[in-house]
Write a structure and sequence with these properties.
Layout lengths: L1 H5 L10 H13 L2 E5 L2 E5 L2 H12 L21 H15 L11 H6 L5 H21 L6 H45 L6 E2 L2 E8 L10 E8 L2 E9 L3 H18 L6 H18 L10 E8 L5 E7 L5 E4 L2 E4 L12 H4 L6 E4 L5 E5 L1 H4 L11 H5 L7 H15 L8 E8 L5 E2 L2 E2 L1
Helix pairs in contact: 2-3, 4-6, 6-7, 8-9
């Protein structure tokens, strides 16, 4: 049945997790067959790619009667009532000071905190208090009392409209955030904490305060060649960067098991990204590039192999020491091979049990303080060199938040990988 669905075309209305994953797989089964240098290369037509992407990130339809999220009681919600009580008491004690003019304030405050019905209720309560004061002071029917009631009524109507618009904006924001969260779950899927002999933990934060996804990406997969990791950063921001990141992740997931080595995997990523940019009508598509770092950790050898395509060098944490793993020769960023050549340099480093690798994007290394000084990553990480991956990333995140001044203007991603002893061994020796 799976084969039948595969050739039936892209799904039209995915409604569950299985349909979401099926839509992602359809993106690559709809590619045209092309051949280059004696090897078949599959191409994704742009219309199919965008259709599948929209289907993958489209959440279920929201009910227009979505109830407000339950929230705990806040003392600030009593402010409108408190103003009514204080204005009433002050007007009774000092009738000549005309404190009743403050009755227009409570409905205005309620518009920022209550629903439309609650705002109208606060306004009616303020009008009732104003009416009661006028009756007690024998001022019913007089111009000041009528004017006060008219003003409070007008403010209540305006506040009810403002409350309705606020609820509409909150609903729209909830929809947008739900779409972003769904897209993140599909694009940046949760990485397993254990892949073979490697423990993996990740850290991700988009530049925008309310965003869930950006141009930084990561992935980790178990393959016949060992555990393969990737981290990357798309040049640019916004939706074009998100779409380019989705293309890179999808291509990596398709080819990561079949590519015999890291240079071949990098060339496949380059080919898919080149086709994507050729199909993209944007003016800057051909100038868009992605820095990536691809790592392979074989299970049988205490080593790690790296191909660094213009990305910040990872940190190797060994025996309490921290050092940058600079590439021995430069490799071109993705979508730059036509200009710089397609030679990909593989560097092999010792990576024994207990060693850790910290992969990161420039959102980490280029964080600045108030004086404009870059974050001293290598020096800071030395304080947590012996921490396990999750604690290492938690310390890093807290330290970055304390170091940065103002609003962060770049995405942030980091991945920590630690080689652990295989199951059934003690201190690296078989039982």
């Amino acid at each position: 049945m799976a084969a039948g669905r595969r050739h039936a075309g892209p799904p039209t209305s995915p409604t569950g997790p299985d349909s979401l994953h099926e839509a992602g797989r359809e993106r690559f089964h709809l590619r045209d067959q092309r051949h280059e240098a004696g090897r078949g290369v599959r191409r994704i037509p742009r219309n199919h790619r965008l259709t599948a992407l929209r289907q993958v990130i489209a959440p279920k339809r929201f009910s227009r009667r979505m109830p407000e999220a339950a929230r705990r009681f806040e003392p600030a919600l009593l402010t409108p009532l408190l103003v009514i009580v204080l204005a009433t008491v002050a007007a009774v004690l000092n009738p000549h000071l005309e404190f009743y003019r403050f009755f227009g304030v409570p409905p205005a405050l309620a518009a920022a905190m209550f629903s439309v019905a609650g705002t109208v209720g606060i306004g009616l309560l303020a009008m009732a208090a104003s009416f009661g004061l006028a009756a007690a002071d024998h001022g019913l029917g007089q111009t000041p009392s009528n004017f006060t009631l008219l003003v409070v009524g007008g403010v209540t109507v305006a506040a009810a409209y403002a409350s309705r618009m606020r609820q509409h904006r909150e609903f729209t924001l909830a929809e947008v955030r739900a779409v972003a969260e769904t897209a993140q779950r599909v694009l940046l899927r949760p990485v397993p904490h254990r892949l073979g002999p490697v423990d993996v933990e990740v850290l991700y934060q988009a530049a925008a305060a309310q965003a869930r996804i950006g141009g930084d990406f990561y992935e980790a997969r178990q393959t016949p060649h060992g555990v393969r990791l990737i981290i990357g950063d798309v040049r640019g921001k916004g939706l074009p960067a998100v779409e380019a990141a989705s293309v890179m992740l999808s291509s990596f997931r398709v080819h990561v098991r079949d590519a015999p080595d890291l240079p071949d995997l990098a060339r496949r990523l380059e080919t898919d990204m080149t086709y994507y940019c050729e199909d993209d009508p944007g003016d800057d598509a051909l100038e868009r590039f992605i820095t990536t770092l691809i790592i392979e950790i074989p299970a049988e050898e205490p080593v790690a192999r790296l191909v660094n395509c213009g990305h910040p060098p990872p940190l190797l944490l060994h025996g309490g020491e921290v050092r940058e793993v600079e590439p021995s020769a430069p490799s071109p960023p993705v979508n730059m091979a036509a200009l710089l050549g397609d030679h990909y340099q593989v560097d092999t480093i010792a990576f024994a049990t207990g060693d850790r690798l910290l992969l990161y994007t420039d959102g980490v290394s280029e964080t600045r303080d108030g004086a404009g000084t870059f974050y001293p990553l290598t020096q800071r990480v030395r304080r947590w060199a012996c921490a396990p991956p999750r604690e290492l990333l938690d310390h890093l995140h807290q330290d970055l938040r304390a170091y940065v001044v103002g609003v962060r203007d770049d995405d942030l991603a980091a991945l920590a990988a630690q080689r652990v002893a295989p199951v059934g061994t003690v201190s690296g020796r078989e039982r």
